[in-house]
Each structure stands twice: as structure tokens, then as C-alpha cells.
Amino acid sequence: TISEYNGQNDPTMLGQIAAQVMADEVDMIIPIATLAAQTMVTAAEDTDTPIVYAAISDPVSAGLTGLDKVTGTSDALNTAFILDMMLAANPDVKTVGLLYSNSEANSTMPIAEAKAYLDSKGIAYLEKTGNSTDEIIAATNSLVGRVDAVFTPTDNVVMAAEVAVAEILNGAGIPHYTGADSFVQAGGFATCGVNYTELGTYTADMAFDILQGGAVPEFHVMDGGIITVNTDTATTLGIDYSVFSTMANTVVEVT
Predict the structure, then answer these.
(1) Which tens digit of pLDDT belongs to each residue from 178-222?
(2) Residues whose CB falls within 8 Å of the CB of residue 142, separated by 6 or more in sequence, listed in order
(3) CA-CA distance, 69 to 251, in Å (whole number)?
(4) What does the alpha-carbon distance between residue 207 and residue 197 come to, in Å, rounded to a whole number?
């Protein structure tokens, strides 16, 4: 029997879900995204319930490693590669917007990596953050006219607002490079990351093996290398993305 819950990345709702699943004495919890995983680990810490998380960009920074009966899959982002894509499409980028939520553990490491990369290239950056959809939309509007491109890591708060974010940035002629293909499907320009169908399958196989009495392995980092481009957005922005074809084994086009 499988019970599915949507916590909408809300701490209060996730806490209520955690209490419910522990009361139901489930055999395993599979949380998706960092806050959900952290909440479930805390709820189950005095029990024998195994937790197999999915799509955690930085399990170490999130405090999800070195724990008994806790493992899962990571969609760790290759930040430098995505910024290489940005410069390949537009070598004249002068200022990059960094749009993210400072409450998202997923964003901490990629944003630090992005700053280091941009510093090494002598490219300026402008940080804008928010912790709700309204705040992210306001932050996006504040970047218009001030940056040549925007980078967002695998940030669930921004993802929740991506349809509106993409509309603003596309209308202003600013490409949005993101940490997951879900952003691109919602209107962002491009990303390079993992195949999330493969990530889901790997997570399910890992969970099944543990339920069958297998040992709990270390977390697994999924292979990336798949560039995803929104062709409608590329047309709107007037960007020739053919340059990406030499940068990855697979370029997936979405609309």
C-alpha cells in the first residue's frame, strides 16, 4: 500500500504529514526535496523506519548523511557547466542575476559555486532572494534592466513561481538558466541536469532493495549531462541554441 502526500514545501504542512505517517506506522518514507527529507528524518529519528529521499541536491549540507537508515538519490547540480552554457550562448554577458531562496538548502552550494565561477571570469552578479512566490516575483521584477541573464539552482521556492518568473524574464529578453528541467518546461530557457525518470526509478529500486532486507547504501549521485531547452522561449529570446549540441550527449527540446 502506498500513501501519497503533498506538503507544498510548507513546514507546518510537512510537520502534520510527518506526524500522520508516523502514526500510521509506515514501513518506509520516501520524501522528495530537501525540506521534506529533513522533516521526515527528524520525525523518524527515534524509530526504525527507513527513509529513502529523492532529488536532494546537497545531502551533506542538508544534514542527511551519516544517519542510520537514511539514504537516497542526489541531483547535484553542475553549476559551472550551466554557466558555461550561458557564456557559449552569449559570450558578452556582463552581469548575471542570481535568483534563489535563502531558505532552500539546495541553493546554498550552487550559489556559492556560481559566485566563485563568475568572479573567476570577471563577470558581475546581482543577488535577489525571496521565501514566497510573491517575494520571488518581486525579486524577478527587480532584476529587469539590470542583468543579461539569470541563474537559479534546483530551488523549490523559485520553481513554484517559475511560470510567472519566466513570463517576466522572457518579456524582458533575459534568458533564465536553471537547475532542473521542470523550470524549462514551465518557461525557463535552459538547463543541464539529470533525467528525473531515471532518478525516480533508481530511488524506487533502492527502496525496494531495503524493504526486502538489504543493507542501506550510501546516497547515490545521478549522472547529469542532459541539456534541456525550451524552444518557444529560445524563439522569444532570439537565441540560437545550436551551440549546445557540442556540449552534451543529449539535447532535449521542450515547449
Answers:
(1) 998 999 999 999 999 888 889 999 999 999 999 999 899 999 999
(2) 128
(3) 37
(4) 15
The CA-based dihedral angle spanning residues 62, 195, 156, 239, taken in that order and rounded to the nearest 10 degrees:
130
Query: Is residue 148 within 8 Å of 178, Cβ to Cβ?
Result: no
> Residue 39 corresponds to which amino acid?
T
- DSSP for 37-104, written as a single string: HHHHHHHHTTS---EEEB--S-TTTTT-SS-TTEEEEE----HHHHHHHHHHH-TT--EEEEEE-TT-
- Cell 541536491 sits on residue: 57
Region at 122 (left for phi over 0; alpha for psi -120 to 50; beta for the rest): left
**Length of the chain, please?**
255
Residues with Cβ within 8 Å of residue 122, at least 6 apart in sequence = none
Closest CA to 30 of 154, 215, 223, 201: 201
